[in-house]
Amino acid sequence: MRSETGVRLPVIDFSKQELKPGSPDWDSVKVQVREALEEYGCFEASFDKVADVRDVLFGAMEELFDLPKQTKQLCTSDKPFSGYHDATAKLLRESMMIDEAHIPGNIDRGLTNILWPQGNISFSKTIVSFTQLAAGLEKTVRRMLLESFGVEKYMDELNDATNYTLRAIKYGRQRTGEPTLGADAHTDKGMLTVLYQNEVHGLEIRTRDGEWIDIKPSPKSFIIMNGESLGAWLNGRLSAPYHRVVTKGNKVRYSVAFFANPRGGYRVKVPEELVDDKNGLLFKPFDYEEYLQYYSVRAARGDFTTDLKVYSNA
Ligand SMILES: O=C(O)CCC(=O)C(=O)O
Ligand SMILES: [Fe+2]
């Protein structure tokens, strides 16, 4: 976790049994979450339970990406970045993304039944257990943040408006040994991202001082990252960190990105409690999926700089 610059991402412990709202442990973790997101836009969340699914999860990912390309390509979607995306001449990254991944049955319908028409119960079970852990952790972090900004009354509204999207990613082996770009520098567009990876590191985060730091999470940790939509909803009180993936060795890197995104059709609007004479409104209400569409057109041209400060400036 210590990079060449000496900067270390905060590690916050979410494994305590008694992490219940209002408890002393909860209040202490809440303060750490807010400070880490203010400083870095992300942190390492230590969460012992994920160790139970680790081996089967990366086994399932190997099984998925080892399927023939024509099979993977059956998973399609109209939404930007969703469905299957093959590696390109520029990037060794393959990805498979599924929407509303937290709804029981969607993993079967959108993924397993298409990839394995004869069935693959263990694949579905593995992915569903992972999404439940990740969604639980995302809700805990979001509740802490909302409490910390005094706007916890919006928790249920945001829950109803959340589309959890799961993206399984494979960064292929590269034989040159040279550092290779796996994901261009970008900011995540949704509310919060929960990342989990195998033992091959490569994620880098840009600090406020413009330095890139290597992220080397423990096998028992997720990385939690703030997205642009949450920053905008909080009227600019948090911002989304630029990050990229650079792989160096000749081992395959698997990661799972679990995104909490606002559902299409829901207008993301800054709560009135966060706007006053000293804090004027910075972001106009916006529809996340319209914004993602707008961004994806630019990203396809290699422009990853679009952000809500431009798109939705009040
Ligand atoms: O693979 C990773 O660790 C990061 C992936 C990522 O940044 C993304 O999918 O938005
Ligand atoms: Fe990202």
From TrEMBL:
It comes from Hibiscus trionum (Flower of an hour). GO terms for molecular function: metal ion binding; oxidoreductase activity. Keywords: Iron, Metal-binding, Oxidoreductase. Belongs to the iron/ascorbate-dependent oxidoreductase family. This is Fe2OG dioxygenase domain-containing protein. InterPro entries: DIOX_N (IPR026992), IPNS-like_FE2OG_OXY (IPR044861), IPNS-like_sf (IPR027443), Iron_ascorbate_oxido_reductase (IPR050231), Oxoglu/Fe-dep_dioxygenase_dom (IPR005123). The keyword Isomerase does not apply. Coiled coil: none annotated. It holds the Pfam family DIOX_N. Residues 162-262 form the Fe2OG dioxygenase domain.
